[in-house]
Amino acid sequence: MHNTAKSIIKQLKLKKHPEGGYFSEVYRSNEVMKKNHLPKRFSGDRNFSTSIYFLLTQKDFSSFHKLQADEVWHFYSGSPLNIYVIQKSGRLKKIVLGKSHLYQAVIHAGQWFAAEVGKQDSYSLVGCTVSPGFDFRDFEFGEMKKLIELYPVHKSLISRLTIK
């Protein structure tokens, strides 16, 4: 692992994330939206907003997954990060976060997406803000077989960026 990544993990007290990489929750709104004020896809009350630090190294990737809420990614440091979004139409969109690229990008609710560091022997430190706030009940891991059946044209990418 890159030495700078190790020091950031220690400094920000990041821990392993189930989708890959490392994270730490930075913010969770104290205010809550009641279930009856949210779209039906939400199973209960949600905080207004949440935010995390998220770090990937070249050895990690963020496995294909989707959320029930929009997620804004913010670039902080390191190498460019490639985010791959399979849009509802099935079209693949590649977003590059980093210096000389985008500093923020939105992943819309219900889209499958994954991410990886764009350079060898490097890392990417980003922030992710979710509103309504993140809850693991709104998180769905992509199943490789199912995703390949739905999007066979993206088989190579799905195979590479999905936890087996």
Task: Based on the model shown, name its key terms.
globular, single chain, five-stranded antiparallel β-sheet, six-stranded antiparallel β-sheet, 164 residues, Jelly Rolls, mainly beta
Look at the structure and give the mean pLDDT. 96
- The largest sheet has its strands arranged as 1-2-5-12-7-10
What is the total tally of β strands?
Answer: 13
Under the CATH scheme, which architecture would be assigned? Sandwich
> How many discrete structural domains?
1
Q: Uncertain spans, ≥5 residues at pLDDT below 50?
A: none
Q: Give the C-level CATH assignment.
A: Mainly Beta
The string of secondary-structure elements, in order, is HEEEEEEEEEEEEEHH
Helix segment tally = 3
Output the structural class: mainly beta
Task: Briefly note the CATH topology name.
Answer: Jelly Rolls
Backbone CA Rg? 16 Å
* Percent helix range: 10-25%
Percentage of residues in DSSP E strands: 35-45%
What's the overall geometry?
globular
Task: Summarize the biggest pleated sheet.
Answer: 6 strands, antiparallel
Span between termini? 22 Å
Any idea what the CATH superfamily is called?
Jelly Rolls
In short:
With 164 residues, this protein is mostly beta strands.
Can you offer a commentary on this structure?
With 164 residues, the protein is mainly beta. It has a single domain, classed as Sandwich (Jelly Rolls), CATH 2.60.120. Helices cover 13% and strands 43% of the residues. It has three helices and 13 strands; from the N terminus they run αβββββββββββββαα. The chain has helices at 3-11, 144-150, 155-160, and strands at residues 15-16, 22-28, 32-33, 46-47, 50-57, 62-67, 70-78, 81-86, 92-97, 104-107, 112-117, 123-131, 139-141. The protein has a six-stranded antiparallel sheet with strand order 1-2-5-12-7-10, covered by helices on one side. Strands 9-8-11-6-13 form a five-stranded antiparallel sheet, with no helix packed on it. The longest helix is centred in the N-terminal third of the chain and has 9 residues, at 3-11. The radius of gyration is 16 Å and the shape is globular. The mean pLDDT is 96.
